[in-house]
Design brief:
Layout lengths: L3 H5 L3 H9 L5 H19 L4 E2 L1 H12 L14 E6 L26 H8 L2 E7 L11 E2 L3 E2 L15 H8 L5 E6 L5 H7 L2 E4 L19 E6 L2 H11 L17 H7 L5 E4 L10 H12 L7 E4 L7 H24 L5 H12 L2 H21 L5 E5 L15 E2 L2 E2 L8 H7 L5 E8 L5 E7 L5 H15 L16
Parallel strand pairs: 2-3, 2-6, 9-10, 9-11
Antiparallel strand pairs: 1-3, 4-5, 6-8, 7-8, 7-14, 11-15, 12-13, 14-15
């Protein structure tokens, strides 16, 4: 078919269509992705673990008709990246932790199994901070992942490796996960698209705590239509996930392509809870006003997010105790300081504090539900700052507001997590010095279809998706 450079420039949907028409083979795409990773990863460190023999073997099986079906949402042999928090059978999976530096799981997790059943080919594991803790992608196993728009800057986290792999054209789609903003922050920092779906939309596990609603798995791509196609391939009920939802009657790809436009949109520069860099605020406000060109009424409005900060801090800490207290007891010396802090905070909280956090979350949900009785979308920045020096672990102060821990600077995303509403980060502009900025779009509960439709319409209006993929750009820190 085409040269490698032409193949990597295809959208995921274009590549899948060529696969369906047999104008390109899965093996050609695997080879093109492998060549692109070899050409670009030294400067960004997005894909530290590759499984190319496994990928080529799977490509051959698909070409021989020995794997899966050709019915939608079949991906036809499209190479993807899988975040290093998700198990892939027979492939080194570290969770970004020295404790698991040599871990090779025997079974893939549910999301990976489903994607492979539907024709995805795993190229390798994308880098992530230890246990996904932190919105800057670095760890003691593989080091730091750098932003391809300026390699002196952070790519965000915790799905940072996936975002960078997409922006540089190493793969066409990538998996991410999101507890406090781990899909949305790196999407904003790398000018790609990351969707945090509703809990249950993507089957999760198998895991010891299958009833959690704070952390979800989700799709990442270079544009909203590609993300919608990947979400179709990820969804569906699974017996091992008690929260999993049936796939909708209308595909998300169909909904996205319809570009149904919202009628009334609420915009908030800060959700009333976070300082925001002035330039980011202005870029996102200008992006929100562009919804008027889509026929929407745009008003400055948002639900009352009071109580969200304390609620999330408590519930997250309780989750860290449940997930990592055993490691804290036995291998504390191998955990990074931020993880230790989160566990120790959780060990100090009381049952009463957890109860109050749950009640505050419930009250927030009811306020959000009332808001979406009047508005179709809530818009706000996807990050309070543009990408910063990769050597800085987290933002400690902004506009005179001091953050006393590594989570607080992502309030603008984790507050939305508490609502269980789907949220997507879509590129909306660049700072004067060329750093990407993303717009966070929040939809009604379980409203991924309408959200993706609006995101596609907005994306077409601003025209930034055409800038990808890019060559990594070396930069020097300030």
């Amino acid at each position: 078919m085409a040269a490698d450079s032409q193949l990597i420039s295809l959208t995921a949907r274009q590549a899948v269509e060529l696969l369906r028409q047999r104008k390109v083979s899965p093996l050609e795409l695997v080879d093109a992705a492998a060549a692109r990773i070899a050409a670009t990863d030294a400067g960004v460190n997005a894909m530290p673990t590759l499984c190319l023999d496994r990928a080529r073997d799977r490509a051959r099986r698909i070409m021989q008709g020995k794997s899966g079906t050709d019915a939608p949402p079949w991906l036809g042999g499209l190479p993807i990246a899988v975040k290093d928090l998700n198990d892939v059978a027979g492939v080194r999976t570290t969770y970004g932790s020295p404790i698991y530096a040599d871990h090779v799981p025997a079974r893939s997790d549910l999301m990976v199994e489903r994607l492979e059943e539907r024709g995805a080919i795993v190229m390798g594991k994308s880098n992530t901070p230890e246990f996904g803790a932190g919105a800057n992608t670095f760890n003691e196993v593989f080091g730091e992942t750098r932003n391809p728009w300026n390699t002196s800057l952070t790519c965000g986290g915790s799905s940072g490796g996936s975002a960078v792999a997409l922006a540089t054209g190493q793969v066409w789609l990538a998996t991410g996960s999101d507890l406090g903003g781990s899909l949305r922050t790196p999407a904003s920092f790398c000018s790609v698209v990351g969707l945090r779906p509703s809990p249950g939309r993507v089957a999760n596990g198998p895991q010891e705590r299958p009833f959690g609603t704070l952390s979800v798995e989700g799709p990442m791509g270079r544009n909203a239509g590609d993300v919608a196609m990947m979400l179709d391939a990820m969804t569906g009920w699974h017996i091992e996930d008690p929260l999993s939802l049936e796939a909708p009657a209308e595909s998300f790809q169909t909904a996205a392509a319809a570009k149904r436009r919202p009628k009334r949109v609420g915009f908030s520069p800060d959700l009333g809870i976070a300082p925001v860099d002035p330039e980011v605020r202005d870029i996102c406000a200008a992006a929100a006003r562009r919804f008027q060109e889509l026929g929407a009424t745009v008003e400055e409005a948002c639900p009352d997010f009071s109580g969200a900060v304390d609620s999330f801090k408590t519930l997250r800490a309780a989750g860290f105790v449940a997930g990592y207290a055993d490691l804290y007891e036995t291998q504390r010396d191998k955990l990074k300081p931020e993880v230790i802090w989160n566990i120790e905070h959780g060990l100090k909280i009381t049952a009463g504090e957890i109860a109050r956090a749950e009640l505050a979350r419930g009250a927030l949900y009811h306020r959000v539900a009332k808001f979406f009785g009047d508005y179709d979308l809530l818009l706000c920045p996807a990050a309070i700052v543009p990408p910063f020096d990769v050597r800085q672990r987290w933002i400690k102060e902004l506009n005179g507001v001091t953050f006393d821990n590594y989570v607080e600077w992502i309030r603008i995303t984790y507050a939305v997590t508490l609502t269980s509403c789907p949220a997507i980060s879509v590129p909306c502009g660049f700072t004067r010095d060329g750093r990407p900025v993303g717009l966070q779009m929040v939809g009604r509960p379980r409203g991924e279809a309408a959200l993706l439709s609006a995101a596609t319409a907005f994306e077409e209006l601003v025209g930034l998706a055409k800038l990808l993929p890019i060559e990594p750009r070396a930069g020097e820190p300030d």
